[in-house]
Amino acid sequence: MFKNTNKRIISINGFALLFAYLLSFVFEGQVLYSLIAYYDYNPSGYILAAIVAHFIGLFFCGSVVKSPIMARRTMISSMGVCLIVTLPFFFNMPTLWALSLVVSGYAGGCAVASWGYYLKTFTPKNQRIKTCADVLIYSNIIMICINVVAIHLSAFIGLAMSIFCLVVGMFFIWLLPADTNKIWAEEMEDKEPKDIQKSLLMLFLFVATITINSGLMYQVMNPAFEHLTTLVSWYWAVPYIFALIIIRNLPTKVKRSQILYVGMAMIMASFVSFMLLGRGAGDYFVVNTLMLGACGIFDLFWWSIIGEMLDYAKNPVKVFGIGLAANVFGVLCGDMIGVGVTSIQIPSAEVAVMALVVVCVTLAMLPPLNRQLTMLIKNHVYLVAYDSMSKPQQEDIIQKTKVLTPLTERENEVLQLILTGKSNREIGEKLYISESTVKTHVRNIYSKYDVSKRAELISMLLKKHE
């Protein structure tokens, strides 16, 4: 049996390799572009089909995958399907290519959504932003290596490297156990599914809107600099990776939400620069650094927020899949707008204005989104604060809070474990009592503190001690 730390690392490695395959091949990857260029095909139909299928896989996977063992089987089998349907790209089979991309896009979406189970299970609550950052950093570094090979050496070697990533990624995921004894939807009677649905919807709309600019980048910005083949092949994702590294290692006291405004300013500056500057190497450095740096800021923001939301979800696969589907939906919309812009040859100044309008809309969406997310995950912040306190401080919080009737010794023990974020089942295992007995103690505690939910109890006890 692996230690939890090793499980987290293995999980990161497996998913990063899967994601590197998707980035380098299925999701508008340079391996796919290089193969299409090699055979002189029109790429638009292939790429659109892959993105739509990927969105469907992400969005609907959680409707079918409803248990840990199903999540494990789905992730491994989906990666296996991707492996099989990618093999035809070694041959000149354009008709089969289209079908293979649809299948690999859908299967890849299911595999990504299923990883939501591993993110929740093997990464502690206060470490998920680092896990998400690590996954994005590693997958993009691998993608850069594959892109350089595909563009400068051979598209087929790049394709082989992408497939190798799938094989090794499958091995890592196979090493991880699916904890079938752990209840999938722990403590949902004390959580608020309506709140998470509203938060998820608002996050979906925000992400889908802001990533329209990513689609415009793919269809309008990138083609304008395609003559800088060598520079683009390695530098494209570098600002993205550096932004992730910086945010990942920020002190906990820094308010990351404020960085979102910096990201929006970078997007605006990127499109303005694209409008005003030329199409040389220096111009590309400016435009791409601003745009991809902003993408890194926003990607880590919503990946980490989705990771936090998993603790309040009945089905982590569903929440993780829908959350990331918003990104794909936004890129898809941006792609379609970009294709239209390119076909009618709209000037770059008007493209910049469109991008600025998108940023203004997201600026208006950010304050209510922030309030909604704060309401949902506030208690998680309290729990982290409680865990960082000394034992005397923790006891002092409980003793100084007035109750209608004093707690019994056992109720006091249960309360302390509630404040550490443990479920009824985990409390029962810790205290060697049945889960039904724990529920009885919990109801008594609610009554004595005059609250009706675990969230209310935690907020009331810890809010005064921020």
Overview of the structural elements:
This protein has 466 residues and is mainly α. It folds into three domains: 1-184, MFS general substrate transporter like domains (Growth Hormone, Chain: A, Up-down Bundle); 185-386, Growth Hormone, Chain: A (Up-down Bundle); 389-465, Rossmann fold (3-Layer(aba) Sandwich). It is built from 20 helices and no strands. The protein has helices spanning 4-26, 30-39, 44-64, 68-86, 94-122, 128-152, 155-175, 193-210, 212-224, 229-235, 238-248, 259-276, 281-309, 316-343, 348-387, 391-400, 409-418, 424-431, 435-449, 454-462. Helix 3 runs parallel beside helix 5 (94-122) and helix 4 runs antiparallel to helix 7 (155-175). The chain is globular and about 75 Å long. The relative contact order is 0.12. Mean pLDDT is 83; it is low at 185-193.
Give the helix/strand class. mainly alpha
Average pLDDT score: 83
User: Fraction of residues in helices?
Assistant: over 70%
Order of helices and strands: HHHHHHHHHHHHHHHHHHHH
Parts with pLDDT < 50 across at least 5 consecutive residues: 185-193
Whole-Å distance between the termini? Answer: 38 Å
Radius of gyration computed on alpha carbons? 24 Å
The CATH topology annotation of the largest domain reads as Growth Hormone, Chain: A
Proportion of beta-strand residues: under 5%
Overall tally of structural domains:
3
From the coordinates shown, what is the CATH architecture of the largest domain?
A: Up-down Bundle
> Any idea of the CATH class of the largest domain?
Mainly Alpha
Q: What is the number of strand segments?
A: 0
Q: How many strands, what sense, and barrel or not for the largest sheet?
A: none
Using the alpha-carbon principal axes, give the shape. globular
Number of helices, where a helix is a run of at least 4 consecutive DSSP H or I residues: 20
